[in-house]
Amino acid sequence: MTFAQLWHELEPLGRDPGTGGYRRYSWTDADAQCRAWFTAQATKLGLAVEADNNGNLWAWWGDTRENAIATGSHLDSVPDGGGYDGALGVVSALAAVRMLKDKNFYPERAVVLAVFTEEEGARFRVPCLGSRLMIGAIDPGVARALTDDDGITLAEAMAAAGADASLLGPRDDLLDGMAAFVELHVEQGRALAPMDAALGLAEGIWPHGRWRLDFAGRADHAGTARLADRKDPMLPYARTVLAARRAAACNSALATFGKVIAEPGGANGVPSAVKAWLDARAPDEATLEKTVTSVRSAAERFCAEHGVTLNVRPESYTPVVRFDDALRDRLAEVLAAAGVNAPVLPTGAGHDAGVLAARVPTAMLFVRNPTGVSHSPAEHADLADCEAGVRALALVLEDLAR
Ligand SMILES: [Zn+2]
Predict the structure, then answer these.
(1) Omega of the bond prior to 264 within 30 degrees of 0, cis?
(2) Tens digits of per-residue pLDDT, 243-300?
(3) How far, in Å, from the CA of 316 to the mean position of ligand 1?
(4) What is the DSSP string of 223-289?
């Protein structure tokens, strides 16, 4: 099947009819549908599909498990996410293998297509959970106990989906058998369009993390509690959002509150608590630390003024990632030889490739996003650019696997 045919099949899975956005959360029915679809497509291509102990899928082309060339991405989404983030890399990998098989290419080394689980951290709040487990960057016991918004643990969610969380843990054998990992991903941001380039190569990933801020006040009646008597946690929270924006602007960093829960959540009451999540990213770790520290000290100051207590704890942290220079240069050469211009870009978005880079030479190929919008139903890439991405990925796999 061509890229367009594959895309057409995957497109409706896990899409919310109301918002048009995707809700492909790990270990849900939508996730099971996406996994089944990938497994069926890879099997049709003659690949041997295996689920590993961490819930990641691997589709092998070739029998050897040494010096394999891996490609792929993820199929889970953020709440009401776009269709391209993650899925583009998976569908392009299938289409690239189809293209190579059609020209009777036979890889000297195994080519393996990967689908990582819980990349977005949308359900269990730790992004790149599947790849982090694989490299041993998160303790399996800690992972099993992670909970979603309904209090369901990862272990329970996996069991309900027919997977065994007692097996979670590092896979040095898989990592040691991998010579390179190349992740194709839709561009998140808008750097390629002004350069008139359909494709780009990644330079590195900004350090980034998530912090949870708990503002604890006192529940009260919205109609009877005098303003002066209130301990309203919404007020220091609101001021903290504005302070985060200022801190980010001052430091040339990024800071975002994208999720907030007011408890108990009554429309006619002062909340007892506000739980909020800060996502912060910066070009280097010192700037990131400076940004988060300034948000935190502003929140502490506002809390003191409003009689509210504050508790801040980090939920995830990813240091700066440098991709493999030699691998990127090789990709650039292969693409240049085929007349493809692929400028090198930095990115603020985390990826499984960034996690794997700690253990395996890793590179990323970006496909132009004309508006730059991502993590939204408006996320888009033109079919012609997606097809250029597939051709580029096929060239790269052919070069690396020969
Ligand atoms: Zn992604």
Answers:
(1) yes
(2) 999 999 999 999 999 999 999 999 999 999 999 999 999 999 999 999 999 999 999 9
(3) 16
(4) TTS-GGG---THHHHHHHHHHHHHHHHHHT-EEEEEEEEEES--TTEE-SEEEEEEEEE-SSHHHHH
Residues within 5 Å of ion ligand 1 by Cβ? 85-86
Proportion of the chain above pLDDT 90, given as a percent: 92
How many Å lie between the centroid of ligand 1 and the Cα of residue 353?
10
For ligand 1, the distance from its centroid to the CA atom of residue 402, given in whole angstroms, is: 28
- Give the separation between CA 219 and CA 197, rounded to whole angstroms: 54
- Which residues, 6 or more positions from 175, have their beta carbon under 8 angstroms from its beta carbon? 134, 135, 356, 359, 360
Distance, CA 270 to ligand 1 centroid (Å)? 38
> Ligand 1: distance of its center to the CA of 131 in Å?
13
Q: How far is the CA of 303 from the centre of ligand 1 (A)?
A: 35
Contact, 30 vs 82, CB < 8 A?
no
Rounded to two decimals, what is the model's pTM?
A: 0.84
Contact residues for 339 (Cβ-Cβ < 8 A; gap 6+): none
128-147 residues labelled b (16+ CB within 10 A) or e (exposed): bbbbbbbbebbebeebeebe
Taking the centre of ligand 1 as the mean of its atom positions, its distance from the CA of residue 46, in whole angstroms, is 26
Q: Tokens 């995830």 belong to which residue?
A: 316
| Measured distance CA(329)–CA(180) in Å, rounded | 13
Which DSSP state fits 297? H
How many whole angstroms from its chain centre is CA 10? 19
Task: Please tell me the distance between residue 89's alpha carbon and the centre of ligand 1 in angstroms.
Answer: 9
